[in-house]
Amino acid sequence: MDLERQLLNGDEAVALAALHAGVALGTGYPGTPSTEILEYLDYLGGRAQWSPNEKVALEVGLGVAFAGGRALVTMKHVGLNVAADPLFTATYTDVDGGLVIVSADDPGMASSQNEQDNRHYARAAVAPMLEPRDSQEAYDHTLAAFEISERWKIPVILRLTTRICHSKTLVTPRRHVPPPPAPGFRRDVPARVMIPAYAKPAHHRLRAKMAEIAAWNEANGFNRILPGSRELGIVGSGIAAVHALEAAPDASHLTIGMTWPLPLETIRQFAASVDRVLVIEEGDPILFESLRAAGIPAEGKPEMYRFGELNVPRVRRILAGDTSPEAPPPKGKPPELCQGCSHRDVFEVLRDMDCIVSGDIGCYTLGVLPPFSAMDTCVCMGASIGVGLGMRHTLPPDEARRVVSVIGDSTFVHSGITGLAEMVYNPPETGHVVVILDNGTTAMTGQQENPGTGRSLNHDPTGKIDFEALGRAMGIQNVHSLNRFTDGHLLEELLKTLLEKPETSLVVVRQPCVLAAPKIRFYEKAALEKMSHACAAMPAD
Amino acid sequence: MSDRVINIVLGGLGGQGVLTASDILADAAFRAGFDVKKSELHGMSQRGGSVSSDVRYGPRVLSPMVPAGEADFLLVLEPTQVEVNRPVLKPGGVLITTDVIPEGTLKNKKSLNVAMLGALSALLDIPESAWLDAIHARLAAKLHRLNDEAFANGRNAARRTFLPLSQRGIEGDLATPNPITAVKSPPAPL
To answer: Do residues A450 and A518 both lie within one domain?
Structure first.
């Protein structure tokens, strides 16, 4: 075990702690800013794999924990929406191995479609939540999360934010972690089969667990008090608390490590020790409202600071009560589709054909920007198909026939397959056309593998989903594939033909991502070599 | 000398190696024994958009982000990105642009980021060995020689362009405006 002090970002620190905790499996779906956690866990020699989406990842993690193994499940904030269904009932169950769910929030939307504050989930799903302030705490809190999870047999959420994930700070691996017990099946039907008869007492047990954890948090949590001036006491958590330490060096500070269930008595005592209590938090006023609900006379931030990330200058403004308009940040060069990117041609065709494009989440969302300006909707993973169908059902036929759904390969596996089921089951009168842009990788998040690439997280060969065969098996009437290298010029003609048909159509446009192509060739070559070695090693008949 | 936090911002476009450079800088400061924090935004960085990264080092660093108007040094790898990043620089802070690298002296354009670190290194109190160790730790072995040369290139060029830290005004007080550091861009190299 490498116990040297090292410079790690928050994601890497979580992975190192997971490795030290002996996780049986890390699983998740790539999403900025969480992606590096599982990649680093794999790099360190831990077992990590990408799931098709976050719901499946959490279900797999829950199974690992039921079987007595420790599981780490990672996702970006919007991923927890997808995993919310298992989450809200997983908390009712008893896990044997620790189950830690990492939610990496993106206040300021550096690379996301919204800035939802996932602290709401801890309260709503009734799960303990830890919020580290830097990479050291990301490491420490991950280990603590496994301990808490096993002690109370409950899933624990570790909430990171972009600045924690992507800031490097020093980490000293600290503790020897007792290894998890050997995996084995323990039958416990009332604690794991959530039919109403068992779920009703389980809900009561869950609330009792939370009361115990709250008491533990008061006495042993990661609440840090930095005494200072009596005039002002600042209560905060995560990166916001660090900005506050810098912006108000003379104030008293209480930084909360476990932000759900809150250590309300600790906060009450702190509040009593100062003249004025100010809550500094990024995003929604969750901490502020919880304190006020508990009768602690806290002040919050002006509404304008709900939006975007906090930083030291913005915290200084909050401290000064400054609500004057903030200078807009200097406009940098926006990102764009790479030169040579296969998506470029497709969006040129869609633009020139004046299609109504129901888009999705990935690199190709950049098709909305000039010179393409060829995307009309983008909401969440997989929405391109459902939204496209909805528009088809409603628009006058002339307009409906212009609607095309465009989705990437990884996004299609994540949430597009059920959209195809909807298309087959409830086809619009004008039919519909779904285009899968298959660039052979999950490009936007940094070229991760997915079930469509036929390679696992560590790039070894594994099962591969055949999109065309899937489409045909589901009953889609027209299924076409098009190699953009050789047949790119045929796309426009093909789309014209399909848009005129009142039938369901799936077109898979293939060309490897220009950034990933050299790596894909390398992985393919490595796989072939591995196979030929294996063949050579086989005894002759 | 760094008894206070030194704030450095690196800027450029996606694909130029801004994040690699800030990794090397942060590691060099760590190897020199400082507390260090580095912050950046990933995600869009490979798609040619503006990229910047903050590195702070000193006896104890709190926020990982350099507050606007408080950067001691601003290193910009792409001329079009100078004005976008300029607001981070404090009055009297040092702007280092690609002008510092003599034209035609880089064997490979891809090592511009390391050459620029070489220029920055001439102004910081981090030993050269820490820089080289950090470069070697971050880059593949086959790239070491090329980047060592690029680093030396930038370091020597900056020594001709800027006064080293120890010879500037009051030692350790970078806030003191210095006629040499306050120039908009460095004079043409010899």
So the answer is: yes
Can you spell out the DSSP letters for A178-198? PPPPPP-----HHHH--SHHH
Residues A142 and A290 in one domain: no
Same domain, A269 and A144: no
ipTM reported for the complex, 2 dp: 0.92
Query: A187 touching B, CB under 8 A?
Result: no
What is the pLDDT averaged over residues A258-273? 98
How far away is chain B from the Cα of A366, in angstroms, using its nearest Cα?
A: 10
Note which residues in 59-88 of chain B have CB less than 8 A from chain A. 61-65, 67-69, 80-81, 83-87
Judge whether A487 is closer than 8 Å to chain B, CB to CB: no
CATH number, position B144? 3.40.920.10
What is the domain-level CATH number for residue A264? 3.40.50.920
The verdict on A267 and A394 lying in the same domain is no
pLDDT tens per residue across span A54-76: 999 999 999 999 999 999 999 99
Q: Which residues constitute the domain of residue A382?
A: 342-526
Burial string for B94-121 (b: 16+ CB within 10 Å, else e) reads bbbbbbbbbeeebeeebbbbbbbbbbbb
**Chain B residues closer than 8 Å to A444 by CB:** 43
- Residue-averaged pLDDT of chain A: 96
Range of the domain at B99: 6-167
Q: Which residue has the tokens 């189950």?
A: A99
CB–CB contact B39 A338 (8 Å): no
**CA–CA dist B38, B55 (Å, integer):** 4
The length of chain A is 541
Residue the block writes with tokens 């490795």: A19
| A170:B36 CB<8 A | yes
**How does pLDDT run across A459-501, given as a tens digit for each residue?**
999 999 999 999 999 999 999 999 988 998 999 999 999 999 9
A533 is a domain residue: no
When divided into structural domains, chain A yields a total of 3
Contact A311 B67 (CB under 8 A): yes
Statement to judge: residues A272 and A417 lie in one domain: no
Q: Which of residues 327-356 of A touch B (CB under 8 A)?
A: 330-338
Q: Is the pTM of this model over 0.90?
A: yes
Per-residue pLDDT tens, chain B, 190 aa: give them: 467 999 999 999 988 999 999 999 999 999 999 999 999 876 555 677 889 999 999 999 999 999 999 999 999 999 999 999 999 999 999 999 999 999 889 999 999 999 999 999 999 999 999 999 999 999 999 999 999 999 999 999 998 877 655 555 433 344 333 333 333 333 333 3
Asked if A233 and A277 sit in the same domain, the reply is yes
CATH code of the domain covering residue A141: 3.40.50.970
CB pairs under 8 A between A and B: 108
Q: Which residues of A touch B46 (CB under 8 A)?
A: 338, 446, 515
